[in-house]
Specification:
The chain has helices spanning 2-13, 18-30, 34-46, 51-65, 68-74, 83-100. Helix 2 (18-30) packs antiparallel against helix 3 (34-46), helix 2 (18-30) runs parallel beside helix 4 (51-65) and helix 3 runs antiparallel to helix 4. It is globular and about 50 Å long. The chain has 111 residues and is an all-alpha fold.
């Protein structure tokens, strides 16, 4: 929680700090405040954040909210440059498909 306070104070003085916005989104996500994390991530995107900087956090937000269809629709591993990140996103998409297909009878069309 102290990191959240420090990052918010930093952003009061420098509201266009992209690294601080992303860090705040991550800190808010860690405490389970998905809505606030989503707002900060949206602000980071408005400031020019790239998919490499935001997709993993956004996927975790969608997953935490149980919004698996959104994760599958909006997070495309092919849009990131880092192959390690693309692999992580593919794994997250796989977990989203599995979670959205429970019970197994619902797996006919996960999207």
């Amino acid at each position: 929680r102290s990191a959240i306070i420090e990052l918010r104070n930093l952003l009061r003085n420098n509201p266009k700090s992209l690294p601080a916005r992303i860090a705040l989104a991550g800190a808010l996500l860690e405490v389970g405040d998905y809505d606030a994390a989503d707002k900060e991530l949206s602000r980071a995107v408005e400031l020019g954040a790239t998919p490499d900087q935001t997709y993993a956090l956004q996927a975790r937000i969608f997953s935490g909210r149980g919004e698996f269809a959104l994760l599958l629709a909006e997070i495309n591993p092919d849009e990131v440059e880092s192959e390690a990140l693309a692999s992580e996103l593919r794994a997250m998409r796989g977990r989203a498909i599995a979670a959205s297909c429970w019970p197994a009878a619902d797996c006919a069309d996960p999207l």
